[in-house]
């Protein structure tokens, strides 16, 4: 009918771009037509996008930044820092000019009641420096006179040691690796070399190791308990499986705190289980077992709390496996055990993978339960992070520990993707 | 009935109940000969699958014995029965390739690698899927999946293959093509096949014999043509093919013929299949294609007035709904050949049929 329309172009354009009838390239028209739809779609997801950026991406970014951020010395004693960087050779104590600058800035900060921040920051590098700074600042603010070098050394002879100045210079860079180093039991010595922490301060490696170990164990226990349960759920008739499902979900509907406290009631040395064992004579009254406020307690309580996260993905995958598959395998000659192993089990793997990675990631960052029932041996890395956030106020270290935890989870995720493939993961 | 002297499969008085309250299969006696293509045909819920599952070993009969090749198999577990089975939704294993699926029965039997590969290739060639061995089942069309399931059930050379509505999920053309291929494979391999369907045309095309099921009872067991032309009771007549029903009371029986007073008052002559007693109510069944429009006077004993109510053009024939003997759902099929009668709705005419085509059955 094109020949009947006066609008039809005289001939096709020379290039072979597809065009609409009035000669506009098809792609342009299509873009124009879909622009409105895309704008609307964008508008609809905008609130979510903003929410995610504000509550998720931004905090994580700030955490990563804080793990290397080091502003204290640069803002509190800026001129000393600058002079140390340019005019000190690192051999022996610096000259009088630097002492004088530091004295001036210390007095100034002391009067502004800010000097404690400098001390705290330096104390991360070398314990004892906080008291040195406070003591020196207090003394020179009251009755300090030049020559400053002699005055300082007279207050404490550590000021005559190049090591002290090295540490100050070390701690004064704008961005520092020292939090990350501390998080893996390393530190920079006053010369700027990476060395191991002294024996008694090496705790983070141990804690990371323990966290991974507990998480792996909890994941394995959840799998061992959850897989048969999911099997049962998937094979029972609807009415019974619904009832069982409610029992599985019940823990979800009670507060975490209540559940954890319930375990305390059950497991403590004067608790129900110990009482029962003593009562039936399996234990003597003195021989009650310590099942809580240690690693055992953490593992038991976490397994219980995380079990649904294992059961649900596995169950929902099992639900999609038609029962005829097992029958088909058996009609083809496989024994029930073999049919289960070779036909059923492989098909549940996406659910198992999803459940395992979910439980593992959740337990790596678990905090409340270890804090309540973990005691000393059941503490995990997140308890240390919380400690540095709330008690020691060493946020840099807390951020570095958190960043490492995040990295560990990402590595795990990457590994999982390489081995199983994330697109195969099914949560439901 | 076919040869009953040495049946390959024998259901001996099988009863089956799932809940202890109702019998899903009621007293089933059925012999299946070696190499036979037997179809279990029946409406949904009539117990066909249950019978098949009992034969395959996934359900145990509540009462009675199943004999396979002269051995009672009630206590033999499914994996040792050596019966090939094709499920309605194919039940292909999604985590295995097509070749692995087909090779699975050989793998569990410990067949050597080279031998197995050879047999898998032959099985896939047989269903014309030789080139697709490395694909996953999810990458195949429904018809192709169906063939894989078939190849898998045949590759270990079972002497008995059970098929539970294997073509139910395919579209019409594909289904017809697969029917033909299945039949062809059956003839080439000579295996015994028991086929379950609720599609009567499928059953008619493929089977050596058909067992028509209803309500856990075999209504009739016969060759397709016999079932169609000589249905033994009202249910079979209804279920197989299209059917006009005329209700009436037997007036007079002479030999194998009878005269029935239809409810409208017309007197119809029919074959007395299940109508012996005088005065008994009976249902006369009559195939729509056996009805002639405007028959020459005197050519048929049964000629009645009719009014065309509705016409549907179906290409190869015309379907017409008419009022005949007081009934408004009387269907007549008029073949669409040159010079056929031209019908118009509202038209009055006569219809007629032979005595042999009208069967008086149980009401
Ligand atoms: N596992 C079961 N438990 C209880 N009742 C069952 C079970 N399987 C089948 N039934 C009942 O047994 C009857 C026969 O079922 P069956 O599956 O044999 O029918 P069918 O002839 O194969 O029907 P369809 O054509 O719909 O497949 C039905 O009433 C069904 O509800
Ligand atoms: Mg069925």
Automatic annotation (TrEMBL), chain A:
<dbReference type="GO" id="GO:0055085">
    <property type="term" value="P:transmembrane transport"/>
</dbReference>
<protein>
    <submittedName>
        <fullName>Putative spermidine/putrescine transport system permease protein</fullName>
    </submittedName>
</protein>
<keyword id="KW-0813">Transport</keyword>
<dbReference type="InterPro" id="IPR000515">
    <property type="entry name" value="MetI-like"/>
</dbReference>
<dbReference type="Pfam" id="PF00528">
    <property type="entry name" value="BPD_transp_1"/>
</dbReference>
<feature type="transmembrane region" description="Helical">
    <location>
        <begin position="292"/>
        <end position="317"/>
    </location>
</feature>
<feature type="transmembrane region" description="Helical">
    <location>
        <begin position="393"/>
        <end position="416"/>
    </location>
</feature>
<dbReference type="InterPro" id="IPR035906">
    <property type="entry name" value="MetI-like_sf"/>
</dbReference>
<keyword id="KW-1133">Transmembrane helix</keyword>
<feature type="domain" description="ABC transmembrane type-1">
    <location>
        <begin position="208"/>
        <end position="416"/>
    </location>
</feature>
<feature type="transmembrane region" description="Helical">
    <location>
        <begin position="39"/>
        <end position="65"/>
    </location>
</feature>
<keyword id="KW-0472">Membrane</keyword>
<comment type="similarity">
    <text>Belongs to the binding-protein-dependent transport system permease family. CysTW subfamily.</text>
</comment>
<feature type="transmembrane region" description="Helical">
    <location>
        <begin position="243"/>
        <end position="266"/>
    </location>
</feature>
<feature type="transmembrane region" description="Helical">
    <location>
        <begin position="348"/>
        <end position="373"/>
    </location>
</feature>
<keyword id="KW-0812">Transmembrane</keyword>
<feature type="transmembrane region" description="Helical">
    <location>
        <begin position="212"/>
        <end position="236"/>
    </location>
</feature>
<dbReference type="GO" id="GO:0005886">
    <property type="term" value="C:plasma membrane"/>
</dbReference>
<keyword id="KW-1003">Cell membrane</keyword>
From TrEMBL, chain B:
<keyword id="KW-0472">Membrane</keyword>
<dbReference type="GO" id="GO:0005524">
    <property type="term" value="F:ATP binding"/>
</dbReference>
<dbReference type="GO" id="GO:0015417">
    <property type="term" value="F:ABC-type polyamine transporter activity"/>
</dbReference>
<dbReference type="InterPro" id="IPR003439">
    <property type="entry name" value="ABC_transporter-like_ATP-bd"/>
</dbReference>
<dbReference type="InterPro" id="IPR050093">
    <property type="entry name" value="ABC_SmlMolc_Importer"/>
</dbReference>
<dbReference type="GO" id="GO:0016887">
    <property type="term" value="F:ATP hydrolysis activity"/>
</dbReference>
<comment type="function">
    <text>Part of the ABC transporter complex PotABCD involved in spermidine/putrescine import. Responsible for energy coupling to the transport system.</text>
</comment>
<protein>
    <recommendedName>
        <fullName>Spermidine/putrescine import ATP-binding protein PotA</fullName>
        <ecNumber>7.6.2.11</ecNumber>
    </recommendedName>
</protein>
<keyword id="KW-0813">Transport</keyword>
<dbReference type="InterPro" id="IPR027417">
    <property type="entry name" value="P-loop_NTPase"/>
</dbReference>
<dbReference type="Pfam" id="PF08402">
    <property type="entry name" value="TOBE_2"/>
</dbReference>
<dbReference type="GO" id="GO:0043190">
    <property type="term" value="C:ATP-binding cassette (ABC) transporter complex"/>
</dbReference>
<dbReference type="InterPro" id="IPR003593">
    <property type="entry name" value="AAA+_ATPase"/>
</dbReference>
<keyword id="KW-1278">Translocase</keyword>
<dbReference type="Pfam" id="PF00005">
    <property type="entry name" value="ABC_tran"/>
</dbReference>
<dbReference type="InterPro" id="IPR017871">
    <property type="entry name" value="ABC_transporter-like_CS"/>
</dbReference>
<keyword id="KW-1003">Cell membrane</keyword>
<dbReference type="InterPro" id="IPR013611">
    <property type="entry name" value="Transp-assoc_OB_typ2"/>
</dbReference>
<feature type="domain" description="ABC transporter">
    <location>
        <begin position="9"/>
        <end position="240"/>
    </location>
</feature>
<dbReference type="InterPro" id="IPR008995">
    <property type="entry name" value="Mo/tungstate-bd_C_term_dom"/>
</dbReference>
<dbReference type="InterPro" id="IPR005893">
    <property type="entry name" value="PotA-like"/>
</dbReference>
<keyword id="KW-0067">ATP-binding</keyword>
């Amino acid at each position: 009918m094109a020949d009947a329309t006066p609008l039809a172009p005289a001939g096709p354009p020379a290039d072979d771009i597809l065009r609409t009838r009035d000669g506009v390239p098809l792609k342009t028209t299509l873009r124009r037509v879909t622009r409105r739809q895309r704008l609307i779609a964008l508008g609809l997801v905008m609130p979510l996008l903003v929410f995610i950026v504000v509550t998720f991406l931004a905090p994580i970014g700030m955490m990563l930044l804080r793990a290397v951020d080091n502003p204290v010395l640069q803002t509190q004693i800026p001129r000393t820092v600058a002079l140390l960087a340019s005019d000190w050779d690192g051999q022996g104590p610096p000259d009088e000019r630097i002492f004088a600058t530091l004295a001036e800035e210390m007095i100034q900060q002391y009067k502004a009641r800010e000097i404690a921040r400098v001390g705290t920051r330096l104390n991360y590098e070398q314990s004892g420096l906080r008291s040195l700074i406070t003591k020196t600042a207090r003394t020179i603010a009251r009755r300090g006179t030049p020559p400053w070098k002699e005055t300082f050394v007279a207050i404490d002879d550590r000021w005559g040691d190049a090591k002290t100045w090295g540490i100050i210079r070390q701690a004064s860079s704008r961005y520092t690796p020292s939090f990350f180093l501390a998080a893996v039991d390393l530190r920079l010595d006053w010369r700027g070399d990476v060395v191991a922490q002294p024996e008694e301060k090496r705790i983070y490696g141990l804690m990371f190791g323990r966290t991974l170990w507990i998480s792996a164990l909890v994941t394995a226990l959840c799998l061992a308990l959850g897989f048969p349960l999911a099997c049962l759920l998937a094979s029972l008739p609807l009415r019974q499986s619904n009832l069982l499902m409610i029992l599985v979900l019940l823990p979800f509907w009670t507060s975490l705190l209540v559940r954890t406290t319930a375990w305390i009631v059950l497991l403590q040395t004067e608790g129900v289980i110990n009482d029962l064992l003593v009562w039936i004579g399996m234990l003597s009254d003195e021989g009650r077992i310590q099942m809580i406020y240690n690693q055992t307690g953490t593992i038991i309580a976490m397994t219980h709390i995380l079990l649904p996260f294992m059961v649900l993905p596995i169950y929902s995958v099992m639900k999609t496996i038609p029962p005829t598959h097992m029958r088909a395998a058996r009609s083809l000659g496989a024994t029930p055990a073999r049919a289960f192993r070779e036909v059923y089990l492989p098909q549940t793997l996406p659910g198992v993978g999803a459940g395992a990675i979910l439980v593992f990631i959740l337990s790596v960052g678990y905090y409340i339960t270890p804090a309540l029932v973990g005691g000393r041996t059941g503490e995990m890395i997140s308890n240390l992070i919380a400690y540095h956030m709330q008690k020691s106020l060493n946020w840099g270290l807390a951020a570095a520990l958190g960043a490492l935890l995040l990295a560990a989870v990402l590595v795990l995720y990457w590994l999982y993707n390489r081995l199983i493939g994330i697109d195969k993961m099914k949560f439901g | 009935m076919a040869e009953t002297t040495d049946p390959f499969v024998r259901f001996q008085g099988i009863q089956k109940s799932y809940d202890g309250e109702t019998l899903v299969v009621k007293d089933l006696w059925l012999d299946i000969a070696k190499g036979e293509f037997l179809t279990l045909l029946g409406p949904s819920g009539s117990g066909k699958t249950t019978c098949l599952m009992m034969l395959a070993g996934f359900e145990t009969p509540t009462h009675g014995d199943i004999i396979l090749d002269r051995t009672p198999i009630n206590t033999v577990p499914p994996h040792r029965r050596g019966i090939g089975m094709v499920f309605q939704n194919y039940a292909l294993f999604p985590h295995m390739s097509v070749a692995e699926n087909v090779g699975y029965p050989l793998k569990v039997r410990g067949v050597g690698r080279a031998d197995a590969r050879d047999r898998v290739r032959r099985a896939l060639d047989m269903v014309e899927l030789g080139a697709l061995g490395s694909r996953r089942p999810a990458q195949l069309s429904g018809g192709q999946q169906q063939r894989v399931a078939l190849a898998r059930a045949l590759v270990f050379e079972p002497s008995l293959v059970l098929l539970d509505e294997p073509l139910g999920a395919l579209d019409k053309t594909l289904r017809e093509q697969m029917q033909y291929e299945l039949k062809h494979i059956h003839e080439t391999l000579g295996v015994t096949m028991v086929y379950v369907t609720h599609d009567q045309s499928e059953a008619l095309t493929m089977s050596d014999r058909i067992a028509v099921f209803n309500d856990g009872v075999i209504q009739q067991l016969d060759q397709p043509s016999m079932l169609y032309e000589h249905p033994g009771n009202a249910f079979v007549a209804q279920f197989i093919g299209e059917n006009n029903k005329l209700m009436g009371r037997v007036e007079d029986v002479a030999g194998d013929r009878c005269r029935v007073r239809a409810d409208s008052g017309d007197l119809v002559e029919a074959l007395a299949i299940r109508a012996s007693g005088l005065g008994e109510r009976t249902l006369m069944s009559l195939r729509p294609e056996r009805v002639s429009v405007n028959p020459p006077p005197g050519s048929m004993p049964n000629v009645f007035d009719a009014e065309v109510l509705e016409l549907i053009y179906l290409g190869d024939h015309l379907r017409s709904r008419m009022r005949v003997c007081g009934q408004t759902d009387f269907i007549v099929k008029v073949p669409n050949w040159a010079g056929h009668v031209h019908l118009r709705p509202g038209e009055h005419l006569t219809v007629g049929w032979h005595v042999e085509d009208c069967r008086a059955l149980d009401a």
